[in-house]
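Supplementary Methods, section 5.1.

A reviewer requested that the exact input to the structure prediction be made available. We therefore reproduce it here, unchanged from the version used in the analyses.
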Amino acid sequence: MAVYVINNMNIHDAGEYKTYVRAFMPTLEGFGGKVLAVQNAPEPVEGRWPYDRIVLLEFPSHELARQWVDSPAYQAIAGHRRAGVDSNVVMLDGLS
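The structure derived from this sequence is encoded token-by-token as follows.
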């Protein structure tokens, strides 16, 4: 079953975040991850949206998504994301 990772973020250090972004895509290799959508300043349809940016990823399974998050390659760059943005990250199971 597909799993989706959603990262809602506010960027406070663009340099740190750019370092993360430059190294991000190779970390998905081998885990079946895909970037489905990236949006700066998403337009709220209803309510207030307090984030600068949203990223939506898809993985073939929960196990592969966790393996990616825990992988040495991703962990090597994750500190740059944490230093550059305040994030709320969730993992959602797709519908079967």
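Residues 2 and 60 are 5 Å apart (CA to CA). These observations are discussed further in the main text.
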